[in-house]
Amino acid sequence: MTRPITVSTINVNGVRAAVKERSSENLGMLPWFKETAADVVCLQETRADDEQLAEALAPVLADGWHLASAEPSVKGRNGVAVLSRTPIDDVRIGCGAEEFALHGRYVEADTAGVTVASVYFPTGEAETERQREKERFMAAVETRMGVLLAQEESAGKGAVLCGDWNIAHTENDIKNWKGNVKKAGFLPQERQWLTDLLATGWVDVVRRAHPDVPGPYAWWSWRGKAFDNDAGWRIDYQLATPALAARASSVITERPAAYALRWSDHCPVTVHYA
After folding, report:
1. Of these four, 122, 128, 179, 216, which has the most CB atoms within 10 Å of its CB?
2. How far apart are CA 111 and CA 90, in angstroms?
3. Residue from 39, 103, 106, 164 carrying the catalytic annotation
4. 4: preceding bond cis by omega (within 30 degrees)
5. 21: number of Cβ within 10 Å
6. Chain-wide mean pLDDT for the chain?
């Protein structure tokens, strides 16, 4: 099926805080849902179990959105979700690796004729077990992406993986790249992994729409003047299979106009596939 679809992704940095603590009547996650043109929205780092997530999103669900989620096994950490205006035909939790089955880092939903996955990669920490865990997750996701790539080739069903990848691919994807060359998120092996992944056919839709320029960033620290100075990272990707990526006609990074308007330390990244 080739119906137009608009997909948005954002790490909400705690869905209950995004709905309540950082929101007002006219500002925040719920007003954003009222205004968005997206047909599918991917959330990461919900930090909520399924019951808490449904409660926080009750006004959104009352408006007719359909929800698929992967709750974390550790309270207050991780958690990913996909919301769709059209019914969700199938849901798959986890990327196929038993180690990460209950981590709340990966959920796939078939909706509107495509497969949309919301993924939240570990942050990692250079030269520690946390980094080795991150790299095992990277390998598991890569294996699943090979299956999805073959799905488009054999059955014509496109796929897009949306989320917080916690990897800045190139120097254009991080403002202070010189200060991060030995830190998780900008390690040579992480960057090479993304290069190799894209070489298999997956398309970084945002970068293709904004070639050879810094950013557009979608994450800024809450601290200091990072947001005001646009000292950010581009780690929120939509990686699409080739035929679906070819349909991308609009790519928007929804950076708030001011620090006070933020309801997450990330901002939505929205792509229209015509």
Report:
1. 216
2. 8
3. 164
4. no
5. 10
6. 96
**Amino acid identity for residue 24 in this structure:** S
Single out the residue of 85, 83, 63 nearest to residue 3, CA to CA. 85
Annotated catalytic residue: which of 106, 120, 217, 273?
120
Is 210 catalytic? The answer is no
Question: Which strands sit side by side in the sheet containing 106-111, from one edge to the other?
Answer: 88-93, 106-111, 114-120, 159-164, 236-240, 203-204
CATH for 5-273, options being 2.40.50.140, 3.60.10.10, 3.20.20.450, 3.30.310.10:
3.60.10.10
pLDDT digits (tens, 9 = 90+) for 95-104: 999 999 999 9
Is 120 an annotated catalytic residue?
yes
Residues of the chain with pLDDT under 50: none
266 is catalytic: yes
The helix/strand count (H/E) of the chain reads as 8, 12
Say which of 39, 106, 237, 266 is annotated catalytic.
Answer: 266
Tokens of 203: 């398309």
What is the domain partition of the chain in residue ranges? Answer: 5-273
**Which residues sit in the known binding site for Mg(2+)?**
11, 45, 164, 166, 265-266
